[in-house]
Amino acid sequence: VDHLSPNYMYGWVFGSGSGLEHSINSGNTWLNTTISPTFYKEPKQNIPPMITNPISKTFYLGAKNLYRTYNRGASFDKIDILGIPDSVGDPLSAIGIGTSDTSRLYVAYGAPLWKSVPKFFKSSNSGQTWTDLTPLVGYNVQGTFVQLLNRYAVTDIAVNQNDPNTLWVSLDGFLTPWMDSARVIVSHNGGLTWTN
User: Fold this and answer.
1) Mean of the pLDDT values across residues 174-179?
2) What is the structure's pLDDT at 88?
């Protein structure tokens, strides 16, 4: 939902005619939204992650790269995160943005069995540059956050409205019993360290 105009909203149609749609009348009717052709050539989840900027019309949609529109879908620009070919790699699974500093973005890649490939990134300048937080984080419940990311997908990122350095990450997966106590983790320093 567009925070400036709640009548405007986005949705993803899943199936043979899958794609992004938008409504200008609170969901009573829906229209197709044209995205850059490169979006459809990239790996993406069945229902890609999407999020609206809480204080502007900006909308983000995730494939392997991040796509952004400033004008409610009239045009999109691609934000390259990994710097590798578009057809290579796994899709984004989550996008996070806060209210107090909307230039701060967090993204996560979803494949749970990556091993040494980076999976968790932060941008402090609206996606111009990215910091890989994957090898820096530490989490001490029978393993590190890096080990958790090697086994479990990030399903969502929530950023504190008043502090962009405080964020919560939810994790997917049922591979080991001790994960039952580590479904949601929190960081108070921008993703450098985490606690259960």
Assistant:
1) 54
2) 66
Ranges 111-115, 135-139, 155-159: which has the least confidence: 135-139
Q: What is the pTM of this model?
A: 0.84
Q: 153-158: list long-range contacts, CB under 8 Å, 24+ apart.
A: 153/93, 153/108, 153/110, 153/111, 153/112, 154/93, 154/94, 154/108, 154/109, 154/110, 154/119, 154/120, 155/93, 155/94, 155/110, 156/94, 156/96, 157/94, 157/95, 157/96, 157/106, 157/107, 157/108, 158/96
